[in-house]
Design a protein that fits this description.
The complex is a heterodimer of chains A (about 375) and B (about 260).
Chain A (H helix, E strand, L loop, with lengths): L6 H28 L8 H6 L17 H14 L1 H20 L2 H12 L3 E5 L15 E5 L2 E12 L4 E9 L9 E7 L5 E6 L10 E12 L3 E2 L5 H37 L1 E2 L2 E2 L4 H29 L5 H26 L10 H9 L8 H15 L2
Parallel strand pairs in A: 1-4
Antiparallel strand pairs in A: 2-3, 3-7, 4-5, 5-8, 6-7, 9-10
Helix pairs in contact in A: 1-3, 3-4, 3-6, 3-7, 4-5, 4-6, 6-7, 6-8, 6-9, 7-8, 8-9, 8-10
Chain B lengths: L1 E5 L2 E3 L5 E2 L6 E2 L5 E3 L1 H17 L2 E7 L5 H10 L3 E5 L9 H15 L4 E5 L10 H9 L2 E12 L2 E8 L2 E8 L2 E5 L11 H9 L3 E3 L41 H14 L4
Parallel strand pairs in B: 1-6, 1-8, 6-7, 7-13, 8-12, 9-12
Antiparallel strand pairs in B: 2-5, 3-4, 9-10, 10-11
Helix pairs in contact in B: 2-5, 3-4
The chains are: A alpha+beta (about 375), B alpha/beta (about 260).
């Protein structure tokens, strides 16, 4: 254990571990195969309050630090990162409404989520992924309302969310500064949920297209001032980047746990694999990358707890950790050999699950552009 | 409805080993847990509270470390917790322990419902909770599946060998629960945090002035342990070779008649 856990943190981690092992783990393989996200699987998480951990108490949350929240989510991700990201997406959406919206908007959003519901973030469009400013979705003022038309894709929790934060252009000619954010009820007329994406990994996590056809929302549902949507999206991404990195640490730790266990049991040439130097080096490198990643995530969480926007640090963390996770899970499969390639064993899923961490919340190439951009300014 | 739950801290027997020489449990280094059946009792208490209001009080007798079991009861939703602890209570058997706990319950009460696990997984006697009812002179029902109020009566479903028995009783009542009674809830994160900071009041001998001190501790305990041992596994029984279903059944019935079972 690489971190200095307080007694409270240890107790919370143990509690969540117990829940995840008993209530989630038995269903993970089936959910992965079917690509399904059964709502009842989330009941214990909602009952425990895992969707509101870092939300302030006045909004009905537990008011934990980002640091402790991350430790708990690493534990969930060890069992299934798709499960964890369903909850992360929910609280990141809520947190951003609280941060950027009015107190009434925050309370409204928190009340819906607090009852045990999911939230989603509708930013990405088919032609606006790494470049969200290129989005085509529009929100046109009509009296006291806005009418939103947009075609969104890769929306986490698309089919299960009760509330969305939807990004659309109120001034299409103004580029990034023309984007505004709106709170939209999932059952608003004109919302069409597309098919569940048949993904490589994180298959328990629900991902869909989301089409908004003349969806009418009151002007009061706009989050923050008009044109501040892009900034809001960046703030949300700063937060979610750090948290997806936590999940990647969970995946890595699981891969390491499984690989060491297997290397001690599996014998070839009359010796357990762990006695072979080449395997030893692989395991040691996996441990190095996992520990370093965890410490990096922890530091970023603590910076965020102290109010830092972690523009550079969040990008560094996300890129480093997700790159490490790719290598660590791939090597776990390697150590398992032929069995690692089989779905009968848990490690191939870890490798599939973690690939997307190099892609979502800003591809790692974009993270490096961000880091270089900050560096350029820092060394003026 | 005022409810008290008896909670015992026990070694986690899934991790326990037997000393091969002394035939006793090796307790050193074994993590402690809440007796699993007591978690079912806590769950029942919380369900009753949700239905009928009132408070849930958890009590445990043991050394200071038993407070961690009470914290688990608090984290699940119990309102108050008391640790019954005193050197004079040390060495108490099930008779003395149940006597002490009955005095504690009388002091903290009155209670409508007293709950506990059917037995503790370390001693497995199943005597302590039920004996509390005898000391207090209240009704007692064991192997209970669930319970609900009907007017001023409580309707209890309990497991018996032949099936399920439905029993009515007046309050107060002592009820013991089993693993199949319910599924104990997980603590909420908030509940867990609060439980770690909660003050747990201690109850000592001096807090229980009408206690008959000849009935407590090692000296007040009539039980004498003659020996503790792991029962030998005995392979027994006879396998009747299958001739054809009819003749095999005949052979089986013949054996049963011979053994005077039929």
């Amino acid at each position: 254990m690489s971190l200095m856990y307080s007694n409270e943190q240890k107790e919370l981690i143990a509690l969540v571990k117990e829940m995840a092992e008993n209530e989630i783990k038995p269903f993970v393989q089936e959910c992965d195969e079917k690509g399904e996200c059964p709502r009842e699987l989330f009941k214990p998480a909602f009952d425990m309050g895992l969707h509101m951990l870092e939300i302030p108490a006045e909004y009905g949350g537990t008011g934990l630090s980002y640091e402790t929240t991350a430790m708990i989510f690493e534990e969930l991700a060890k069992v299934d990162a798709g499960y964890a990201i369903t909850l992360v997406t929910t609280f990141v959406a809520l947190r951003n409404v609280i941060l950027s919206g009015t107190p009434e908007q925050g309370k409204y959003f928190a009340d819906v989520i607090g009852k045990g519901n999911f939230a989603g973030f509708a930013l990405t469009e088919p032609n606006a992924g790494s470049d969200p400013a290129a989005m085509r979705g529009t929100a046109v003022k009509d009296g006291d309302d806005y009418i939103i038309n947009a075609s969104k894709t890769f929306i986490t929790n698309g089919a299960i969310a009760s509330l969305f934060v939807v990004f659309a252009k109120t001034k299409p000619e103004a580029g990034a500064k023309g984007i505004s954010a709106f709170i939209v009820d999932a059952d608003a007329p004109g919302i069409i949920v597309g098919n569940h994406e048949n993904k490589m990994g994180l298959r328990l996590s629900n991902t869909t297209d989301l089409t908004l056809e003349n969806v009418r929302v009151p002007a009061s549902s706009m989050v923050g001032p008009e044109g501040s949507g892009f900034k809001l999206a960046l703030n949300a991404l700063n937060l979610s980047r750090a948290f997806v990195a936590t999940l990647a640490v969970g995946i890595m730790q699981r891969a390491l746990d499984e690989a060491v266990k297997y290397a001690k049991e599996r014998k070839q040439f009359g010796e357990p694999l762990i006695k072979f130097q080449m395997v030893q080096q692989m395991l040691a490198d996996m441990a190095i990358k996992t520990e370093a990643s965890r410490v990096l995530v922890n530091n970023t969480m603590r910076l965020m707890d102290n109010g830092s926007l972690v523009r550079k640090e969040g990008s560094i963390t996300k890129a480093f950790v997700s790159d490490c996770a790719q290598e660590v899970t791939s090597n776990a499969v390697q150590i398992f050999g032929g069995y690692g390639y089989s779905k009968e064993y848990p490690v191939e899923k870890l490798m599939r699950d973690c690939k997307v961490f190099q892609i979502f919340e800003g591809a790692n190439q974009i993270q490096r552009m961000t880091i270089a951009g900050v560096l350029e300014k820092e060394y003026k | 409805m005022n409810i008290v739950v008896c909670v015992k801290q026990v070694p986690d027997t899934t991790e326990i080993k037997i000393d091969p020489v002394k035939n006793t449990l090796i307790r050193e280094g074994v993590p402690s847990i809440v007796n699993p059946f007591d978690k079912n009792a806590i769950e029942q208490a919380l369900q009753l509270k949700e239905l009928y209001g009132g408070t849930v009080t958890a009590i445990s007798m043991g050394p200071n470390q038993a407070k961690s079991s009470l914290r688990i009861a608090l984290s699940m939703g119990a309102d108050k917790a008391y640790l019954v602890t005193d050197r004079a209570f040390g060495g108490s058997d099930t008779y003395a322990t149940s006597y002490i706990l009955s005095k504690v319950i009388e002091k903290l009460g009155p209670f409508d419902v007293i709950l506990g696990g059917i037995q503790a997984i370390d001693g497995d006697t199943g005597q302590t909770c039920t004996s509390i009812a005898e000391h207090m002179g209240v009704n007692r029902l064991s192997y209970v599946l669930d319970m609900k109020m009907d007017g001023d009566k409580v309707v209890v479903r309990r497991m018996v060998e032949e099936g399920v028995e439905i029993v009515e009783s007046k309050l107060p009542i002592l009820v013991t629960l089993t693993k199949v009674s319910n599924k104990p809830r997980y603590a909420t994160i908030r509940g867990k945090i609060d439980s770690l900071k909660a003050e747990i009041e201690e109850i000592h001998l001096t807090d229980l002035p009408d206690m008959d001190t000849t009935k407590i501790g090692l000296k007040g305990s009539p039980t004498r342990v003659k020996a503790t041992f792991t029962p030998k596994r005995q392979a027994c029984g006879e396998i009747i070779e299958l001739i054809n279903p009819k003749d095999t059944a005949k052979a089986l019935v013949g054996k049963l008649l011979e053994a005077k079972i039929l």
